[in-house]
Amino acid sequence: MSATTKHTGQNMGKIYFAVTGWDPDIWIKAFAKYAPEREIVTEVKPGDEASIDYALVWKQKRGSLTNLPNLKVIFSLGAGVDHVFHDDLVPNLPIVRTISPDLTMRMTEYVVWQVLDHHRLGPQYRAQQLKKIWREDRRQPAANEVNVGIMGLGVLGRDAAEKLKHLGFNVSGWSRRPQDVAGVATYHGKDGLSEFLKQVDILVCLLPLTPDTKGILSMSVFGRMKEDGPLGAPVLINAGRGGLQNEADILAALERGQLSAASLDVFEKEPLPESSPLWDNPKVTVTPHAAASSSANALAPEIVKMITDYERDGTLTNLVDREKQY
Ligand code: NDP
Ligand code: OXD
User: Fold this and answer.
1) Do residues 188 and 174 touch, judged by C-beta distance below 8 A?
2) pLDDT digit string (tens) for 270-323?
3) Probe ligand 1: pick from 114, 196, 207, max atoms within 8 Å of CB?
4) Residue identifier of the C-alpha nearest atom 30 of ligand 1
5) Is the peptide bond before 288 cis (omega within 30 degrees of 0)?
6) What is the C-alpha separation between 185 and 173, in angstroms, rounded?
7) pLDDT at residue number 4
């Protein structure tokens, strides 16, 4: 244990688990393993406000981080941080987001899974199986005939791009600023969007939800994509955030044949309401915001190390830019 972490439970700042909807026990157990001397609390009792040094957050309750005079760093337990800014009272402190090999691998698995499912006609064969139909009359294109376009070339988008490239797909990507990814055709900014979209067969969205990207997956995007390709009309895969998509537009684009299918992991409203027509649409694959779940066992040691580094010399990595909100 380093000199700066040689505290005892009594004088060491506590960690506040300000999380909505997750089981705290798993996280408390995981942190107890890597920082047994540090207490995690799920609520701040009156009089205890000054004992909190760090907050772990996922959709924290509005105002729950105010009035903590010694709070130093806010750790988002997700890679996305829109859920942190949802609270307009979030204090002006460093926000660190999750960047972890575990989470990246999970997301890449999801993206590769969905891309291959559409590429290899998974939805069609499952529908045939339900009706006991043996039919192999649709040409399966080679991977190098298919262009996968990734919106968001950040930590997750880049990894997915590299793995898809490895599988033989043509991969292109779109970001805010110019980015370089080996073997990937890159486009950026509003001006580069049309050029990017017009070649895409499978559109993968791994953007953060910010004021700039809200609702971007709408007719204005679908209308700029090509009308056919080796898979028919383009396929949409969104694992970024539900707020990026206009669900009425997705349904209309599926109906009109502007999109041939969609795999959606995230939704405008979560859990997806039973009344949503997305549930029953045969062209839509729904997963319950499970593309890359945060694992307590993977993240606890990484966050404990970040706290140790921070207490040693003030180092903080994976900082969120408050202005850009990602
Ligand atoms: P990063 O911050 O590393 O990357 C974000 C990318 O989006 C960057 O390439 C950035 O461009 C680009 N971008 C941001 N704003 C714009 C814009 N206005 N126009 C064009 N491009 C833009 O994020 P991650 O890759 O780590 O994560 C992406 C998102 O994935 C998260 O924000 C989260 O919402 C989602 N996610 C979903 C999960 C799930 O289970 N469904 C799990 C984990 C994350 P530039 O490179 O120029 O900065
Ligand atoms: C994340 C998520 O942002 O799981 O990490 O959605």
Assistant:
1) yes
2) 999 999 999 999 999 999 999 999 999 999 999 999 999 999 999 999 999 999
3) 207
4) 240
5) no
6) 6
7) 35
Q: Which ligand is nearest to the CA of 196?
A: 1
Going from the Cα of 292 to the center of ligand 2, the distance in angstroms, rounded, reads 6
Question: Has 289 been annotated as catalytic?
Answer: yes
Strands across the sheet containing 40-41? 40-41, 14-19, 52-58, 73-76, 95-96
pLDDT tens digits for range 249-259: 999 999 999 99
Atom of ligand 2 nearest to the CA of 289: 6
User: Alpha carbon of 220 to those of 49, 177, 249: distances in Å?
Assistant: 48, 21, 9
Residue located nearest, by CA, to atom 2 of ligand 2: 78
Assess contact for 299 and 56: CB atoms under 8 A: no
What is the C-alpha to C-alpha distance for residues 174 and 150, in angstroms, rounded to an integer? 6
Instruction: Write the residue with the smallest CA distance to atom 1 of ligand 2.
Output: 78
What is the model's pTM?
0.96
Tell me the pLDDT tens digit for each residue of 121-146: 999 999 999 999 999 999 999 999 99
The answer for residues whose C-beta is within 8 angstroms of residue 115's C-beta and 6 or more apart is 148, 164, 169, 202, 204, 237
Q: Which domains does the chain have, with CATH numbers?
A: 2-98+294-317 (3.40.50.720), 102-286 (3.40.50.720)
Element (H, E) at 194: helix 189-197
Instruction: Name which residue sits closest to atom 5 of ligand 2, judged by CA.
Output: 78
Tokens standing for residue 241? 């955030």
105, 294, 295: residue to mutate for ligand 2 pocket, most atoms within 8 A of CB? 294
